[in-house]
Amino acid sequence: MDRKEISTGKVVIVGRPNVGKSTLFNKLVGKRKSVVDDKPGVTRDKLEDFAKWQDKIFRLVDTGGLMPGEEDFFNPKIREQVEKELPSADAILFVVDGREGLTSLDEEIANMLLPYKDKVYVVINKVDSKKAEENVYEFYKFPFKGYYPVSSIHGTGLAELLEDITKEIKTETREKEKELKEELKDIPKVALVGRPNVGKSSLFNRIVGEERTIVSPIAGTTVDAIDTLVERNGKKYLFIDTAGVRRPSNVDYGTEFFAVNRTLNAIDRSDIAVLVIDGKEGVTHQDQRLAGLVSRRGKGLVIDVNKADLLPVPPDEAERQIKRKLFFVDYAPVVFTVATTGEGIDNLFSAIDLVWKDYNKQHKTSYINNCIRKIVRENPPPHYRGKPTKIYYAFQKKTRPPTVVVITNRLKGWKEHYKKFFIRRLRECLNIHYAPLVLEIEERTEEG
Questions:
Q1: Could you tell me the residue range of the domain that residue 289 belongs to?
Q2: 26/58 same-domain check
Q3: Rounded CA separation 318/308 (Å)
Q4: SS3 assignment, position 304
Q5: Are residues 12 and 92 in contact, defined by beta-carbon separation less than 8 angstroms?
Q6: Is 448 part of any domain?
Q7: Of all residues in the chain, what percent are helix, strand and coil, respectively (each to 5)?
Q8: Does residue 309 sit in the same domain as residue 213?
């Protein structure tokens, strides 16, 4: 499995926690993609996006804050992840805090960066006061390529930094960005969603083929949505890994609130959501809520039962239980995976392909109307106030999801039970078995 990327230079942001790395990342990519919080160490996973300067584009990577201390679970993991990025980086932005001045941890990180000194740019952040300006010179002791006093929040000082970086690294033009967007238009965008600690990050890592997000036994370690273009069996997919969604009563305003929003945004940006369920625990109320969110947004859905090696019942029985609890998305295929070993990953991709095919199905108006005539002959819409409910005609409005518009004379004649029957029969006739089918009913008078 190969990851396909736009061919640009890679710029990696490193530094200790709370120096403003994520603020700098958000400023350079032009959107709030990385979670920003006053708590040290909020960014634990690396995050990538394209940054733009004038007509030039390059890849920007935000890494977790390097923290000392044996008790901190993330320190060795983050250090390992940062060290993995450094050799392939074309430029390294070493972010320090101008307000605090030089710290022992800054010096420790500087020593780690010494082998790459010719591509390290020291970004002295938060230089927006006289004291911070006085502290700037403390950082000039490092033997690095350049020094840039900036304020990431206000954007001051960034122009010179970007000018110098883009002179040194390979960049692409906006034309290349348009090509990439055009390429992505016909690629399924797949969001991995689920509760914390159900194995989404392990699954994402297995799909991508590298330890892209930090996986730990602590619930809720992924706080950002991360996009990765993946090629498998000659097909391309854009995968979006997201933070775990807790029950609303357990969500504090702040970092976790924004992580939940990112999950919702990831669902909105996706075509297909893979709802990852803990095989040992089965379907929970929160899993049902997430499936409902995906359904209401008209997205395709695959139910991935992860940790399938821990199923308390045989797979057939587990699938029956899942289908019963998620009856309102009965079109969604169910697959069983063990992310840690890779078992079932092929089946997951096959299920995504099935959903994607149905999600894009388009039918001629004549065919749709033939289907509707068959359905009405079998079971016509109920009368309303003693008068018949008629269907004048229908047409497919769009795909992704397939959306059929029915023109009728009496909207109130379409009771809920009849709509469910109608959609079920329409699915069969249109051969749409694995994707949502949206029915829109519009009322028009016989004169109109």
A1: 186-359
A2: yes
A3: 10
A4: strand
A5: yes
A6: no
A7: 40, 25, 40
A8: yes
Tell me the pLDDT tens digit for each residue of 387-446: 999 999 999 999 999 999 999 999 999 999 999 999 999 999 999 999 999 999 999 876
393 lies in some domain: yes
177, 212, 237 — which closes off a domain?
A: 177
Domain end residue (candidates: 336, 359, 382): 359
**Bridge partners (DSSP) listed for residue 347:** none
- Quick: pLDDT tens for 222-231: 434 457 788 8
End-to-end alpha carbon distance in the chain: 56
Name the packing angle between helices 21-29 and 158-168 (round to 10°): 70
Structure tokens at 401: 């999801």
Polymer length in residues for the chain: 448
Rg of the chain over all Cα atoms, to the nearest angstrom:
26
| Token representation of residue 336 | 């069983």
CATH number of the domain residue 311 falls in: 3.40.50.300
Residues 154 and 224 occupy one common structural domain: no
* Bridge partners, residue 169, by sequence: none
Residue 188 CB neighbours (<10 A): 22
